[in-house]
Amino acid sequence: xxxxxxEALPLSRQLVKAPTAAKPxxxxxxxxxxxxxxxxxxAEGAGRxxxxxxxxxxxxxxxxERFAPYLAEFVGTFLxxxxxxxxxxxxxxxxxxxxxxxxxxxxxxxxxxxxxxxNLNPSVSVALMLVGRHSPRVAARLxxxxxxxxxxxxxxxxxxxxxxxxxxxxxxxxxxxxxxIELLYSAMICFVYxxxxxxxxxxxxxxxxxxxxxxxxxxxxxxxxxxxxxSNSVMNTAIAVGLGVVDCKEGFTARALFYIFAxxxxxxIGAGAYRIVRPxxxxxxxxxxxxxxxxxxxxxxxxxxxxxFFGTFFIIFTxxxxxxxxxxxxxxxxxxxxxxxVLTSMVYSLRGVSGAxxxxxxxxxxxxxGRSTCERHVALFYVVAQFFAAVSAASLFSLLNHGQPIPLExxxxxxxxxxxxFAETAFSFLITYVVLASxxxxxxxxxxxxxxxxxxxxVSGTLPNNDxxxxxxxxxxxxxxxxxxxxxxAMLNPAVxxxxxxxxxxxxxxxxxxxxxxxxxxFGALLATGVFALTHAGLYRQVDDEGDKEAVA
Length: 553
Known about the structure:
Elements: E1 2-3, H1 14-17, E2 33-39, H2 42-45, E3 49-55, H3 63-87, H4 97-116, H5 122-130, H6 136-160, H7 175-198, H8 212-227, H9 237-247, H10 255-277, H11 287-300, H12 302-321, H13 332-354, H14 360-369, H15 376-400, H16 417-438, H17 442-446, H18 469-488, H19 494-506, H20 512-515, H21 517-535, E4 541-543, E5 550-552
Antiparallel strand pairs: 1-3, 2-3, 4-5
């Protein structure tokens, strides 16, 4: 056991005062260290909470150990860039390329995360530097390793294979649309990485989560499918460099520079959004500033409301882009898969901030059931933020799609209106019930009658850690998207209805029948709330101070 305040470890002395202020070692994580919190003894400063680090082997890392993170970044980026280059060959179909790229990220994140943090992207390394998790020197070394790995992959591609890569705007779109989408999804990837890997609350040193790789990889899946009608997305500065090297085989072109520009500045947007939703996780803050940030977090709830806005925006924007132009002709599969992917990433990123509802019907159910992470008046701001995000996503889609509204259905459905509303209600029920069930902790199941909060007033601020909650929420949209997509369009969210139908209304088409879907979403959510209360009756059992009376709410 080595105390963090000893000079033997390159950790900040602030670690003893505030564990959330931990500085990283040479990488983004603490690969060789474990830890546990306990109260300090009298000699250490009674009353303080300290983090005891456990380490196997030598205290001082060898030169090779210091070099290992950069080698891991080189190898990982090499493999990832090679995957992108093969998938973006001009002769290949784009149906499964986004899935291939995203799952490669998942595999590399889990394989290399304990070595270097698996940044695999200069944008991510820069974002980590901006929020204080990397020093500028470490960030520069990581960026250099990643860029060299990407260039090496491009050289291998040129040596052994022929052909070009398909990058740049598709027919009917401009570089402005390409840069906008690339900038937003690059920012989303940095945002997801920071929330899932760099946040000391979402990924504590002593109990690291298991969903970092899944969340980041699924972000690539979502961005890849969403952008395919406009351009093959990159969302990685190093990969953009590698693609640019291959693209210049027959002569210099500047197409890759646009991707490099967008991906690099996406890091700044992602880091800024992270600071907004987690204002209290700045390792460079003084004690007084940290106390002020904590008071603002408790009093304003602005970070929670912002989290609902960011998550809802990317979900609706991704769904809308999948219906742009000829992308809708590929059927419901890509939309269902990519919406589930972005939802999974956002839930893992923001569940500990706002609850990650991203749906007015689910928000209402959480409040009514007593499973909400906020007060009821704050939940109202959640709904406002969700609808505002819907307007923002629809407006941006219309701007990119030459003023055209979002298609409400893939093809003219031959199903009756009753079949459509039943499908919307049923899958709204499924989504709501799963979200409520994922909020139940093991301690509540083990001892449900010993809750501190009475029924209907469970406001704890955050939900219990759950490594599968994001996947559960995303799986519902995969199921609902495939099953109901050809029947009703699989709206499954009042904010989506507001977004899609609102743009149609501006063009003179008032889709009253589709507007009514929102009412059935609310009905399905309330029905799920009732069923949840019946199947989890123990959560609503109340015990008096003596423990000799109980009532079931």
